[in-house]
Backbone:
């Protein structure tokens, strides 16, 4: 009875007592596994580095930090045309295509309609617009109640896209924000 592999023969010949012992041991192992899972620290920080898609020169860094009421999004992006640019978390953290399309559609785990960050009906990934100044520089500092860094709707590992055109916050399902000028992947960051 030294190894797990010998258990089936004991179960065959040993009857109910051995089966009960096996089940107790199995339950204990499951409990230990659950305790181990709970010891994993909560995710509180993430970052995406934006790289330009082909033919563009848009660069930036976007940090995500867990705060009361949601996730604080702090963006600093350069190389844009002046004005508004659609800004979204997309489904896939895949920056492998030259035009950014491998990132898929807007991250939408609740299967809702496209909207703006302040709308009740929105995709989780709908971050609205970045506003670039005359030099093409955009900053954003916003607490978003629709994002999470933990659990099944976590944005970790998803894509982050900046678009050529403004998001009108209503056209389905994209906001009519046009081509993708920069793409990044949201990864774990060291907690501040
Ligand atoms: Cu987008
Ligand atoms: Zn959307």
Residues:
């Amino acid at each position: 009875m030294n190894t797990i592999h010998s258990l089936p023969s004991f179960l065959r010949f040993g009857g109910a007592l051995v089966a009960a012992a096996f089940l107790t041991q199995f339950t204990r192992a499951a409990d230990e596994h659950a305790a181990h899972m709970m010891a994993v620290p909560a995710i509180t920080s993430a970052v995406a580095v934006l790289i330009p898609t082909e033919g563009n020169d848009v660069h930036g860094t976007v940090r995500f930090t867990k705060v009361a009421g949601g996730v604080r999004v702090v963006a600093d992006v350069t190389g844009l045309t002046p004005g508004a640019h659609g800004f979204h978390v997309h489904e896939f953290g895949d920056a492998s295509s030259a035009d950014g399309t491998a990132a898929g559609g807007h991250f939408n785990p609740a299967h809702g309609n496209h909207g703006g960050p302040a709308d009740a009906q929105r995709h989780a990934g709908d971050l609205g617009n970045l506003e670039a100044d005359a030099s093409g520089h955009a900053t954003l500092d916003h607490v978003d109640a629709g994002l999470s860094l933990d659990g099944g709707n976590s944005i970790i590992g998803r894509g982050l896209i900046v678009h050529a055109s403004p998001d009108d916050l209503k056209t389905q399902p994209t906001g009519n924000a046009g081509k993708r000028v920069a793409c990044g992947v949201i990864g774990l960051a060291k907690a501040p």
Remarks:
- The chain has a mean pLDDT of 88.
